[in-house]
Every structure is written in structure tokens, then in C-alpha cells.
Design a protein that fits this description.
The chain has 159 residues and is α/β, with parallel strands linked by helices. It has 2 domains: 10-83, no CATH class; 90-159, 2,3-Dihydroxybiphenyl 1,2-Dioxygenase, domain 1 (Roll). It has 3 helices and 8 strands; from the N terminus they run βαβαβββαβββ. The longest helix has 11 residues, at 21-31. The protein is globular.
């Protein structure tokens, strides 16, 4: 029986696609405080490369991508693609492929007030966790393109 993926030491980055890189930069840098690192692109390939390597339409074009380090451990790789048949609706958490990115904050109440003051849609008020995760409070917020983020304050466990 395997002990897991050989050599795995941690998370390298989180990649996601947005409809507007400038709107993503404004949220990630101006509101959340991430740093802009660098950009790549445009990038497109003939033949089946895009499909076989990235699981996108063979005629997809990665218009540009930006890298944003955020906090001590996260790096966001943010893409803007154009592709035939591209879906533009964000999945909800209940949808297959639904997801969110959780960010830890020291003071969740101040962080929520800050997001709201900066025009960010916050979904409700912080909720206290219970059972094995007892201790932290959390709340979701939405990026301008609808992607779900979460703030977590207080820790139930340390990794």
C-alpha cells in the first residue's frame, strides 16, 4: 500500500481563470493586499497541445496570466482565456467542480468591515464553527466575477 505521492511537500500555487485580469488584480492587490509578481502570455498552440496538456478546447488562447503571492503560503496563478464554447458561469459550492479559496485572518470582524467598505459582497455574517472544527469563525465573500472566497478567523487545528 502506498504512503502517498512520493516527494509531496506542500501546496505550490492555486490557479483559476477570470474574465478580466484587471478586475482580478484590483481585488487581489488593492483589496486583499497580495503582490503582483509577473505576467506571461499570450499563449496558444497549434494542434492538440492545449487539449492534451490543459484539458481545454484545442483552439483556446491563454490571453495572459498573472502571478500574485498572497500572505506567507499562497500564490495565485490567474488566467484569462478565450476559447470556443467557454463557460462563463461560476459554479456554486453545491455544483460539481464547486470550490472556494479560504484565507486566514487574525481579526475576522475587522476584515469583514474592511471588505464591505471596499464594496465587496460578503455573504452574511461570520458563523461559528462547531464539532471537530470548533473555535474558528468563517464567512464567504464574492470576487467581482463571482468566485467564492472565504475568510477564517481563529483556529481549530494547526497543520
Amino acid at each position: 500500500m502506498s504512503a502517498g505521492l512520493p516527494g509531496l511537500t506542500g501546496l505550490d500555487h492555486i490557479g483559476f481563470t477570470v474574465p478580466d485580469l484587471e478586475a482580478a488584480r484590483r481585488l487581489l492587490v488593492d483589496v486583499l493586499g497580495c503582490e503582483y509578481l509577473y505576467s506571461l502570455g499570450p499563449f496558444e498552440r497549434d494542434g492538440e497541445w492545449m487539449e492534451s496538456h490543459l484539458n481545454v478546447d484545442p483552439n483556446a488562447r491563454m490571453q495572459r496570466l498573472h502571478f500574485f503571492p498572497c500572505g506567507a503560503h499562497a500564490v495565485f496563478e490567474v488566467f484569462q482565456f478565450s476559447a470556443p464554447g467557454q463557460r462563463t458561469t461560476q459554479p456554486r459550492n453545491s455544483d460539481v467542480g464547486g470550490h472556494h479559496v479560504a484565507l486566514y485572518v487574525d481579526d475576522i470582524d475587522s476584515a469583514v468591515a474592511y471588505l464591505r467598505a471596499n464594496g465587496v459582497t460578503v455573504l452574511g455574517d461570520p458563523t461559528a464553527s462547531s464539532r471537530p472544527s470548533e473555535g474558528p469563525r468563517w464567512v464567504y465573500f464574492l470576487a467581482p466575477w463571482g468566485m467564492q472566497f472565504e475568510l477564517v478567523g481563529g483556529k481549530a487545528f494547526d497543520l
